Amino acid sequence: MATAKKASSKTGGVRFAQEPAAAATHSHVHFDEKLHDSIVMVIPESNGNFLVKVGFLKTQHKYEIVFTLPEVPGLGKDVCPAPIPNPHLRITNLTKSPDGGLRVTCEYMAHQEGVMSEELQIVSESKDDVFVKVKVHARVMDRHHGTPMLLEGVRCIGAELEYDSEQSDWQGFD
Length: 174
Known about the structure:
Blueprint: H1 21-25, E1 41-44, E2 50-58, E3 61-69, E4 79-81, E5 89-96, E6 102-110, E7 114-124, E8 131-141, E9 154-159
Parallel strand pairs: 2-8
Antiparallel strand pairs: 1-2, 3-6, 3-9, 4-7, 5-6, 7-8
């Protein structure tokens, strides 16, 4: 039985220049305790409507999104979702918030890759023609680009699986 000798000499290598100590002291990263980018953002618009930014989502996934709108005095106390059909975004619950605002729970089906903007309306049940529009903005990644870190107020509640013949284990009969 033949034995192989292991080479013990170092052939080539990479050396890094040592940095001065002063440069090393300025290379730290500082994060705030609570990043403002980690929660769903509700932004009032000049026309009385709202823009809601929900961050990154993944295509073919269904999400529950919860946010609170500030009090809108013109709507009154009795409100409901407008009966406008939207196949991708729908309000599932509206409740008064303890601070006087309106807590909105909705479901969103991320159906297409890209920057998406879906609109919903909340109407007054006691006042005719009084409503507020809410635009929900999301950045939707395709299903092959990893899993996004969801913002506080966004929860994945399901995924629509597509059949992918390349990933199938079925080989057929010979």
